[in-house]
Amino acid sequence: QVRLVESGGGSVQPGGSLRLSCAASGRTFTNYVMGWYRQAPGKERERVATITWNMGTTYYADSVKGRFTISRDKDKVTVDLQMKSLTPEDTAIYYCAARRSAATVVNFWGQGTQVTVSS
């Protein structure tokens, strides 16, 4: 059974940094796209960043380009999201996700971790 377990959320002041980590288990993720999504109160869940497991090809939402960096560790089977220059608009629940490369929807979700940016 696939498990995606997020950690590293918390509260930070504007301009600060946080690093989220997702521990993935239950299968091999070859041919998967791993990613981070977020959902703010009253808003739809949005894709933040993704990375292909095989090649490490990345995607970033325009709102986080230049501030967030996604990475994966094949040995540890983790997917991290380094977030810098955080603003209150980044406040949301952040979810780790895994999608088969050929799929159009996410196949597996983590339980989410809260990120709050406030002074």
Task: Report what the structure shows.
- There is one protein chain.
- The chain is mainly β and 119 residues long.
- It is built from no helices and eleven strands.
- Strands 2, 4, 5, 6, 9, 10 and 11 form a seven-stranded mixed sheet that branches.
Summarize the structure.
This protein has 119 residues and is mostly beta strands.
Fold topology:
Elements (H helix, E strand, L loop, with lengths): L2 E5 L2 E3 L5 E8 L6 E8 L6 E7 L5 E3 L7 E6 L4 E6 L8 E9 L7 E2 L3 E5 L2
Parallel strand pairs: 2-11
Antiparallel strand pairs: 1-3, 3-8, 4-5, 4-9, 5-6, 7-8, 9-10, 9-11
> How many E-type strands?
11
Structural class: mainly beta
Quick check: average pLDDT? 97
Largest sheet: 7 strands, mixed
Our measurement of the CA-to-CA distance between the termini, rounded to an integer number of angstroms, reads 40 Å
* Secondary-structure element series: EEEEEEEEEEE
- Please state the overall shape, judged from the principal axes of the Cα atoms: globular
Roughly what fraction of the amino acids lie in strands?
over 45%
Report the uncertain regions.
none
Taking Cα atoms only, what radius of gyration do you get, to the nearest Å? 13 Å
- Number of alpha- plus pi-helical segments: 0
Helix amount, in percent? under 10%
